[in-house]
Amino acid sequence: MEPTLKTDDRVLVLKDTIVQFDISSGDIVVFHNINSDYSESILQQYFDELQIWKINDVNSQENAALIKRVVGVGGDVVEIFENGEVFVNSSKFYIPNINEGVNFKNETFVIPDNEIFVLGDNRPNSQDSRYIGTIPISNIIGKAIYLIYPFENFKKLDD
Fold it and tell me: Is domain 10-72+117-156 in CATH 2.10.109, yes or no?
């Protein structure tokens, strides 16, 4: 997620069980990796209601939780072009100050209902929906709303 988030940053994650919110294009979400052995329990949900998440290094892709930016939601059509440009429903998806990269292949993704399509902000070096597929809404832990550590970098993560 560099440059937006760096290794060892901490973010405040809000779950929709505390405050109702919609997940939309541009949001940064924490979700259970679809390739992990995650299983949901009521007790674990209770303890996980509001957490501070540490951004792990690139070697932690098998961790149970990942953080990425939402590009498309159910029903959207996401197009990625060779030059790194991303379009959602024929409109350019733009996030300032990120590396869109180059040398991608032209791909079109139709996002199923109740799923999201995510990309990392460092697109040339990100294991995201281009590789792992769409993410079921049920895998979303919550929405990252603030970068809280290191303290000098404290900021709202705007969507």
Answer: yes
73-111: b (≥16 Cβ within 10 Å) or e: beebebbbeeeeebbbeeeebebeebebeeebeeeebeb
Give the Cα separation of 70 and 134 in Å (integer): 10
Q: Sign (positive/negative) of CA torsion 24, 29, 33, 39?
A: negative
Strand, coil or helix: 147: strand
Between CA 88 and CA 12 the distance in angstroms is 27
* pLDDT average, residue stretch 33-41: 64
Query: Are 70 and 93 a contacting pair, CB within 8 Å?
Result: no
Reply yes or no on whether the pLDDT at 50 is more than 60: no
For residue 42, count other CB atoms closer than 10 A to its CB: 6
Token digits for 41? 């329990």
Question: What predicted TM-score, i.e. pTM, was given to this entire model?
Answer: 0.80
pLDDT of residue 62 exceeding 80: no
| pLDDT surpasses 60 at 45 | no
Domains in the chain: boundaries: 10-72+117-156
The pair of structure tokens assigned to 13 is 């994650």
